[in-house]
Amino acid sequence: MIIVGIGNNAARATDYVPPNSCTPEGGGHAAYLAFIRSELIPYIELAVGGSPARRALLGHSHGGSFVYYALFADAPGAHLFNAYLASDSSMGCMPSVVESWEAAYAASFAALPVRLHMSHTATNTLDAAFAQRIRDRRYTQLSAHEQAYGGTHTGIIPMAFADAVAFAIAP
Q1: What is the 3 state secondary structure string of the chain?
Q2: Which domain holds residue 108?
Q3: What is the CATH number of the domain that holds 165?
């Protein structure tokens, strides 16, 4: 397993999300995904290796919202990752935007050929409702799992990440 951690704390409010009620300076999410696609992944695969068929994207908070953006940005068969792991997203800052990404995808495609792990705190009702919305779509080829955790937004990270990675690499 190759794990690539992208250190980006300083620009997370810009790079991970569109402008929203929590971080109006957002808007770099499309460019950030383009960077991952055209620069980071080719560099990692050339320098270190890896399997394009086994890539996973994991993010928490604004990173979790970015995971949803990346998931719905590509058509079936063109997904950059085979597993998308969203943890306690910041959807509360932009619920209609995240829902519009999914709605636009659903309007064009019935298949979602990926593994999707959605985790959140037990009190995050927006993420829970979004997970239900995705289940209600009955996307073909989708392997999805939702998990709610007791604890705080940052407190759930160790459990949520461990479960998400296990889900991503399961046969």
Answers
A1: CCCCCCCCHHHHHHHCCCCCCCCCCCCCHHHHHHHHHHHHHHHHHHHCCCCHHHCEEEEECHHHHHHHHHHHHCCCCCCCCCEEEEECCCHHHCHHHHHHHHHHHHHHCCECCCEEEEEEECCCHHHHHHHHHHHHHCCECCEEEEEEECCCCCCCHHHHHHHHHHHHHCC
A2: 51-169
A3: 3.40.50.1820
Whether pTM > 0.90 for this model: the answer is yes
Which tokens belong to 155? 């407190």
Number of separate domains in the chain:
1
What does the pLDDT look like over 44-69, one tens digit per residue? 999 999 998 899 999 999 999 999 99
42 contacts: CB under 8 Å, gap ≥ 6: none
List beta partners, residue 147. 119
